[in-house]
Design a protein that fits this description.
The complex is a heterodimer.
Chain A: H1 2-67, H2 72-77, H3 86-92, H4 95-127, H5 133-139, H6 142-145, H7 148-158, H8 165-172, H9 187-212, H10 216-224, H11 229-240, H12 242-257, H13 261-267, H14 278-288, H15 294-323
Helix pairs in contact in A: 1-15, 3-15, 4-9, 4-12, 7-13, 9-12, 9-13, 10-11, 12-15, 14-15
Chain B: H1 3-21, H2 23-32, H3 36-39, H4 54-62, H5 64-95, H6 100-110, H7 115-129, H8 135-159, H9 163-171, H10 176-187, H11 189-205, H12 208-213, H13 222-231, H14 237-247, H15 249-257, H16 259-267
């Protein structure tokens, strides 16, 4: 703190000392500055136009959808009447709302808990030096890289009630078949299991790189003092990994809140809303029925955005605090 | 236990854990070679004895158009992503634009927007411009998955380019565009590879935009090819799984040839060293 104040003081002194010489060339610099600002924004122009046209505008259209009463006809030809928050109020009073909210939270937090715990255990394991460790770690990335439709349909096949390998495995240890995807009690658990599998690599990679950054001398010193592996993990690895853990969990939350593909492909949110979340409900309303309800669909989507943004802002705060 | 025995035990545990993790992938490959009759057999065949290539014959006869569409869409998405994000990364990293911080913040927020929101907005827009069910429409939508990530990668990477290198170019009389084109871009090869890899993979894997913006006509990608199979009443699991195996090839190839870029891409932007 003290040394930082001193540096600051020195830099202020330097600046005031340099001010006299600078006044002559100030005008020249200003014109150079203006041209360099022009160049800077010329390079940014494609991105700026892109963000306005392909992010801001679709978001605006989505907001507009949620505030009007659209029919298929007015969707194509325009002229839908403005109804304010009617769509939002309809959605919140819908019977599906509570179910979707609970499912979204359950799906997100149960997934995160297991992904993080398993990812952490694996990261600690792979951080030890043994043969084949790098190549095995690389293989762990496979589930994360596969197209989600591939993972989802593979899990749907494994969890098939009649011929699925999971039920066969349960049969071997004396447990009767479970109707994973068609029983309302199990549908949400099924999609959570698949999602945990997909998310483990992400947690593993981030936490592993965090562990690599911990100075090995700390663990060596602890070993000399006679600490066992569990003590080393609890007293050294875990506390020093807290910043990386926070980032991993926050990013995981932002990503998991909006998961759609896995749930939709495995269960379509069913049976009877048993595994529906805000993401699948929104899709169901907008695209899942013969008669699309774009207004309510957009309203549900915007509620999801609010949840994601809250999670996201927390993430940005955490990251800023760590960068400082 | 001796030290070397301990290490060998760890290797064994590691192999077992990896095998467990990759079991679903194995099971997909196994099912893709199994005949429909054997798929319903109890107990299931753990290896594809008296296997069949019927699933793969179905892929070749029915899925090739979807696969070539996906290839085209993936490559165009990479091109669009690079054109938009590489110059922006250079500007944010080296040219200190006023208001660049706001743009950086907008990119962070953009990454958090769920695809369903974008899909609905794009649906409304593409419908009115007549670009629904077209390749360009889907390419634009798919690129929105990659662009914020790409700008962050380019900015981080280009920040590390030594100032002297760029100064030398300016002294030699190169303009900013020349500097960007003949110094910054060649030096940023690794960032270009990482961005291209992820942009391609995400476009190839996209299901949300495909199913909402490109679900009719002849321009549909492979994810919809698989989805139509699943939707059939007589679910032909070996054809589904054979298509899934083929659709996983790009990911596998990329993992083998570019593993260090993959790991770099996952950690970039989220962990700072």
């Amino acid at each position: 703190m003290n040394s930082r104040a001193q540096t600051l003081e020195r830099s202020v002194r330097d600046q005031s000392g340099a001010a006299k010489d600078a006044s002559d060339s100030a005008r020249a610099r200003r014109s150079r500055n203006r041209s360099s600002q022009l160049a800077a924004w010329a390079f940014l122009a494609p991105l700026t136009i892109y963000l306005l046209a392909f992010y801001a505008y679709p978001l605006y259209r989505n907001l507009d959808l949620s505030l009007r009463n659209y029919t298929v006809y007015s969707f194509v030809h325009g002229g839908a009447p403005f109804t304010g928050f009617a769509n939002y109020s309809a959605v919140i009073h819908d019977a599906t709302f509570a179910k979707a909210l609970i499912n979204t939270l359950l799906f997100t937090f149960v997934s995160l808990l297991f992904q993080f715990a398993i990812g952490m255990a694996l990261a600690v394991f792979f951080a030890q030096h043994f043969r084949l460790s790098p190549i095995l770690r690389a293989l762990f990335l496979v589930p994360w890289l596969l197209p989600l439709i591939v993972s989802a349909s593979t899990w749907a096949w494994m969890l098939d009630s009649g011929s699925g390998v999971v039920n066969y495995g349960l049969h071997l240890i004396g447990i009767g078949p479970v109707n994973w995807l068609t029983d309302p009690h199990w549908a949400l658990a099924s999609v959570i299991i698949a999602n945990i599998w997909i998310g483990i690599p992400f947690n593993l990679v981030l936490l592993y790189s965090g562990i690599q950054a911990i100075p090995s001398t700390l663990n060596e010193a602890a070993a000399i003092d006679g600490a066992n592996s569990w003590t080393k993990f609890r007293r050294i690895t875990f506390p020093l990994l807290r910043p990386v853990s926070a980032i991993t969990l926050m990013l995981g939350m932002v990503y998991t809140l909006k998961v759609f593909d896995i749930i939709w492909i495995m269960t379509k949110g069913g049976p009877v809303d048993a595994s529906t979340t805000f993401a699948t409900w929104s899709y169901q309303l907008g695209f899942g029925n013969l008669l699309p309800e774009f207004g309510p669909g957009a309203a549900v989507g915007n509620l999801l955005v609010v949840m994601a943004l809250v999670a996201g802002l927390v993430y940005i705060r955490v990251q800023r605090r760590q960068a400082a | 236990m001796s030290k070397s025995a301990k290490r060998r035990a760890k290797t064994v545990i590691g192999v077992v854990l990896t095998a467990l993790m990759l079991f679903p992938v194995y099971w997909m490959i196994n099912a893709s070679f199994t005949t429909d009759a054997n798929l319903r057999k109890n107990p299931p065949n753990l290896i594809p004895i008296d296997g069949t290539l019927a699933g793969y014959r179905a892929v070749i006869s029915q899925q090739l158009p979807y696969l070539s569409n996906s290839l085209l869409i993936g490559m165009l998405t990479v091109a669009l992503t690079l054109v938009v994000s590489a110059p922006a990364g250079y500007s944010l990293a080296k040219l200190r634009p006023k208001g660049g911080g706001v743009l950086g913040f907008a990119l962070l927020v953009a990454q958090m927007i769920p695809a369903i929101i974008m899909a609905m907005g794009f649906y409304a827009i593409l419908l009115s411009t007549g670009w629904i069910n077209t390749v360009p429409g889907l390419v634009i939508a798919d690129s929105t998955i990659a662009v914020p990530f790409a700008v962050l990668i380019f900015t981080a990477f280009m920040s590390a380019i030594p100032e002297e290198l760029l100064q030398a170019a300016v002294t030699d009389g190169a303009g900013r565009f020349r500097t960007f084109w003949s110094i910054v871009l060649p030096v940023s090869r690794n960032a270009i590879v990482t961005v291209s890899l992820f942009a391609f993979l995400w476009a190839w894997s996209d299901f949300m935009f495909a199913s909402t913006l490109d679900s009719g006509g002849g321009n549909q990608p492979i994810t919809l090819g698989i989805y139509h199979y699943i939707g059939n009443n007589d679910q032909q699991w070996n054809a589904i799984m054979a298509t899934a195996v083929v659709a996983s090839i790009p990911a596998t190839v990329l993992l083998v040839i570019a593993q260090k870029y993959v790991a770099a891409g996952i950690t970039a932007g989220s962990v700072k060293d």
